[in-house]
Amino acid sequence: MQTGKITSTHVTSVVLRTLAPRPVVGRRTRSTRPLLDFSPVSCAVALALASFLGACKPGDKVTGEGEQGSKTSAPASGQEGGGASPANKAEPGKSKAPRLVRVSELEPQAIEERLPCTSHIEALHSVDILAQVRGQLKAVAVREGAEVQAGALLFELDRSEPELQLAATKNRVKNAENQAKDAELAIAEAKDRLAQTRIDLDQAKRSFDRRKESAAQSLASDAQLEDAQLAYDKAKNAVDLAESSLRIAEHGLIKAQTEHEAALIQVRIQERILADSTIVAPIQGVIPELLVRGGEWIAPLGKLCTIVASDKLVLNLRRPQKELGRLAVGQRVDIEVDAWPERRFRGSIDLISPVVDADTGSFRARVRIDVDEEKSLRPGMFCRAWIVTGTNPEALLIPKEAIVYEAEQPYAFVVRDGKAERITIDRGIDLKDAVEARNVAAEAHPGAFVKGDQVVVVGVDGLATGGVPVQVVKS
């Protein structure tokens, strides 16, 4: 007795044997009988056999003696002597095998939320050096690219003409002073003369009064009375003339004092012109370019050079108005430039514009760059900057490969007590490959992440809403 599994090969072999033709005995000529026997009996037998074999399942055993052995199917599942393989069906009373997953353990990390932007470095303060007076440029005391201190000599114009004019105005001052002194003497003389004429007038008046009384008593002649009258009138005119002379002398003093003051003003003007002939640096900085070389005639307000305060550098950032709530004065800014890609420079926001540009919908944020002792940064440099808008020194980061979304709500699975527990993520700082979870706790409880949680990163499919037994596979 031979046994074996029924296969498609067995079925095909049996059908072909049934339809095989019978040999013709006693004929020597070529047979014209077809290769297969399609007689009614043969076809019926083949169809019956095919139906029987088709009802057998793969894996059923066939028994028989020799080639024509009988065929019997294996007992059905649940019948005595046969059953399902343990690999295909779990035994009654035993739970499902746990799902295999890989995890990442949550450990606190210091993170920063950074807002990228680009700009050009600018000097906070720069001054155009202009000539204040006309003159020929005699000396250039600086060179291009030089750093200068406040008050350092830069240029010097020809001083001969302003010096002469200053000397002339000083002479005018002296003349005015002399005129004032003469006027003061004239006033004093006029006052003395006035006092004397007033005495003479008093005497003439008393003499005239006595003559009038004598004439009334017929003790004085009319000629004597007329002489007394004439003397009185003459004394009175002398007083009037002395008063007029005093007024003229006083006016002369005022005029002399005015000329003196005007001369003093001219002296100060000429001194300023002479001082402006020497041009000094108003601020500390560097001179990027000289516009003169010496010997030129300089007109008033002619530009000579520019001084840039290289130790006070800023970035003027234009940001969309939606970021107004994210930026604040004092936030740290990290800066990189192509000239020194390995170095990181720092600054901070020191001004946020109180207005928003109505045309562009943006506002200006000014970043003050920290002092660079090596003076590596230069005005005009293109730079990339990152504004640090948020920090967390002990953040729990959920890897993005562990995040699953449902109705746009992110969540992740953590392994607790051998089962996958689903926790919704309250998103915080979003990094390149992870997201900060804000729903954290000191101790494990549903709905919060804790330090040391094992977050499923591989095998999240099929965990559904959680509670599925899992087994952690180490990488």
Q: Could you spell the SSE succession in H and E letters?
A: EHHEEEEEEEHHEEEEEEEEEEEEEEEE
Going across the major beta sheet, what is the strand order?
4-13-16-15-14-17
Query: Average pLDDT, to the nearest integer?
Result: 81
Number of DSSP strand runs: 24
Largest sheet features: 6 strands, antiparallel, barrel
Alpha-carbon Rg, integer: 60 Å
Share of residues in helices: 25-40%
Structural class: alpha+beta
Number of helices: 4
Distance between the termini: 53 Å
- The outline comes out as elongated
Poorly predicted regions:
1-6, 23-38, 57-94
Describe the SSE topology.
Layout: E1 2-5, H1 8-19, H2 40-55, E2 61-64, E3 99-105, E4 109-123, E5 126-130, E6 135-140, E7 147-148, E8 153-157, H3 160-216, H4 222-276, E9 278-280, E10 285-286, E11 297-298, E12 303-308, E13 313-320, E14 332-337, E15 345-352, E16 362-369, E17 382-399, E18 404-406, E19 409-416, E20 419-424, E21 427-430, E22 434-437, E23 454-458, E24 466-472
Parallel strand pairs: 3-24
Antiparallel strand pairs: 1-2, 3-23, 4-13, 4-17, 5-12, 6-8, 6-11, 7-10, 8-9, 13-16, 14-15, 14-17, 15-16, 17-22, 18-19, 19-20, 19-23, 20-24, 21-22
Helix pairs in contact: 1-2, 3-4
Please tell me about this protein's structure.
The structure is a single chain. The protein is built from four helices and 24 strands. The protein is an alpha+beta fold. Strands 4-13-16-15-14-17 form a six-stranded antiparallel beta barrel. It has a five-stranded mixed β-barrel with strand order 3-23-19-20-24. The chain has a four-stranded antiparallel sheet with strand order 9-8-6-11. The longest helix has 57 residues.
